[in-house]
Amino acid sequence: MNWTAGQILFFLVAGGKVPSVKHSIPTLKCPNLEMGFRLQAALKMSVKIISFTVLTAILMWSIDVSSVPETHLIVPLQQEEAPFEDSSTSKDNDKKLEYHPIYHKKNHAKKDAHEIPCLINGNSFISCRKTTSGAIYLPWNFLYEYFEVSGWEESNGTFCFQHSYATVQKLKPVYKPSSSFMNFGGFNVGRRDRVRCITATEGVPLTTQWNEAGYHYPIQVAQYGLSHHAKSEMVGEPRQEILEDGEGTKDGAPGPWIVHKKAENSGLSLAQDSETSMNVLQFKTSDSLSAPGIFMPVQDHNLSCLSMDIKFASNGSVSVLVIVSNGARVRIHYIQSDTLIVSDSDQSNIYYGLGKQRTGAWIHLARDLSLDVLKGIKLREQLESKEKKEWMLTKVLEIRLRGQGMLDNLKLKSDVHKDQFFYTADWFVRHQDEKGGWPIPCPRKLIGTAVLQPGWYSAMGQGQALSVLARAFFMTGHQPYLDAAARGLWLFDVDSSQGGVKAVFFDRYVWYEEYPTQPSSFVLNGFIYSLLGVYDFKEVAQGKEKLVAERIYQAGMTSLKAMLMMFDSGVGTLYDLRHVVIGMEPNRARWDYHTTHIELLMQLAIIDGDPIFKKTHKRWQRYLKGQWARHN
Ligand SMILES: *[C@@H]1O[C@H](CO)[C@@H](O)[C@H](O)[C@H]1NC(C)=O
Ligand SMILES: *[C@@H]1O[C@H](CO)[C@@H](O)[C@H](O)[C@H]1NC(C)=O
Ligand SMILES: *[C@@H]1O[C@H](CO)[C@@H](O)[C@H](O)[C@H]1NC(C)=O
């Protein structure tokens, strides 16, 4: 038996017993939603005592000589009182734990221990260790899988143990449907690996999650928009540098553009656009990407986003030359094509399609150039985090125009969050169908239910769209946003069996289905997101539409309050109610969904004073630390 360096053992004093946690490998693959996967952010050591007579300790074990620090025997725990408080009366999330350093390197050297077989629940053996003092050690790599817990070694040699790998994010104490949506400011939707790119045609993410060809997933689009809305609110107005505004320099000349000597029939001038009466830069040169075009070198700065208004009169393009952290120069071309993204094999040129034939109308182009570079590199493969660092944009070097047209408001900016948000809101207005829905073009199957055929609607997609549109309307007063949101409600009143999103639990409680499956699945998080969307809309709506939204919202809240406890397993939460509906095994929410459930209840507790939300999210927080509900 080779104990490799750094294997970590979980120690149980003789006489203690392994807490009897039923170990079941989840066999149900839940659809991975558009939630961030929050990993091991919290470093706070927090250990729960599992059994009254048990002292537990975590220690480092290393047999081979290696760089791993040898023994840091730090955290035996002790608890005298009854192991579980009644969770409903417990005031504090964290019980005070006493930490007694009882083992030390000196009296607990590795040679002190020998291997013994360890029989796991009567059917398999693993190799354990026993010291001369009688202490038994189980290998950590067994324990963490067996008990589904987390642990890692800090650089200072401390081993940190946690039941949960996910952490709960804080929310603002007040919820306003006009301001940041929950904690979405922390999401980086565009950077997720399954997002192929942010299209230049419409400025929204294209996902490859369920279809390699790429498609727009309304939930992801909404979350992208809401995250940029929240980021914009967090950082305030971006820093910016105006490179061209068509107003001319002091002596009435255009900005520092360079026209190549050999470029025939090329030129630029200041002019007025007859459509908008704005002063603009008019440019004329060859369309060809191999021609030098007209370019402007960019001064030293640290701005990585680009924004401009451009109107082409020919098949022109915009190219940006950037340098990335590994020293490579990359050209990003925004061209008139339907191909959304393509790159050269050596990644020196990345092409984003603006759509075919985008001549004759103003285009507002706002791009996060660092993201555009990243998505262009190794288009179909996922980048390692090391590679992501290598391909970070460090500087914009120049901007180049080709073809004929007009340009205005050319700026480099520290961010384009607002543009990214409005691209999203506009996408929802543009792509709503006659049922008021945003159909999903991929089939979906949840185990135990019939396949959702392409064209299905998600209550979560509808609801998150409402959250986007309500905010866009609040910021602009632009009626089409509000009208689209009002139509977005229609499907909430249509049964899932009829192509809508409404299900009814035991003929009594309406539920808005994230996946409107047959039979119904009753997914918790998607339902609450949909309710938040309806809430946002009802807060900005007026008249008849407000009343409709109120009715839909109240019916949903009544169901939620009545049904919430069905999702509580006493040690965690359940993702959906398929175990009730179709009798399959309960679908446990993995930790990041459990924390999502907690955050959603925290949000509802702020909106609705019913104590069920507060009481429940507090108990669910305790599950994160292994403090389970009382047993009989
Ligand atoms: C080591 O790091 C952990 C986590 O950052 C910290 O809580 C702990 O106090 C540190 N231990 C020592 C001995 O410095
Ligand atoms: C970028 O430049 C601005 C102004 O020169 C400066 O205030 C800011 O701290 C810089 N930011 C970074 C991340 O270097
Ligand atoms: C326009 O130019 C792009 C390259 O800039 C090219 O891919 C596309 O085919 C051209 N379209 C037409 C209609 O010529």
From TrEMBL:
Originating species: Plakobranchus ocellatus
Domain D-glucuronyl C5-epimerase beta-sandwich: 278-404
A GO molecular-function annotation: heparosan-N-sulfate-glucuronate 5-epimerase activity
Protein family according to the UniProt entry: Belongs to the D-glucuronyl C5-epimerase family.
InterPro entries documented for this protein: C5-epim_C, C5-epimerase, Glce_b_sandwich
Topology of the protein relative to the lipid bilayer: Single-pass membrane protein; Single-pass type II membrane protein
Catalytic activity: [heparosan-N-sulfate](n) = [heparan-N-sulfate](n)
Full protein name: heparosan-N-sulfate-glucuronate 5-epimerase
